[in-house]
């Protein structure tokens, strides 16, 4: 965590506050601190370099929501980011997802990561990935791991429809498409695993959860 820049707080409508941080390690540490302290009624929603603090329960009236956010804002303004301990290894749930590594961009991704396709498959399935945050669409987790240190280019021409369950790479992230969508991620495989149950439990994985991919034929 660098802590080179101060925490910036911005109103985000009448019921939310957006905390902007200098980098992903700081965001992880701030998220861990927020989750370890009591902020009743305030949802904590991390993104790449922000944390949204949202009173989403509409049974809480606006005045009460704003009071809670003012208290939290005062705490955050007094917080020295450089004193926050680094986030520890994930204590979230572990999910195992079967993948058929038959994506149309498998060879392209392997070349960009300087691997053979077989080595890419072994590497991708060898170590759990951490869900950094959810975004883009419900249930879409941005996945990282420490040894993914080469970025993968997005496609120059995005596809008009990426199939549900597609496993792909873009930049420093891996992800699984919960439903069909246009997109420019490079696709390495496909899973039948339901990443977002619209009629039931919602997203399969939450931030700080881990996902292990398992190669199947």
Automatic annotation (TrEMBL):
Residues 7-206 form the Carboxyltransferase domain. It holds the Pfam family CT_C_D. SUPFAM superfamilies: Cyclophilin-like. GO terms for molecular function: ATP binding; hydrolase activity. Keywords: ATP-binding, Hydrolase, Nucleotide-binding. The keyword Signal does not apply. Signal peptide: none annotated. The keyword DNA-binding does not apply. PANTHER family: 5-OXOPROLINASE SUBUNIT B. This is Carboxyltransferase domain-containing protein. The lineage of its organism: Bacteria, Bacillati, Actinomycetota, Actinomycetes, Micrococcales.
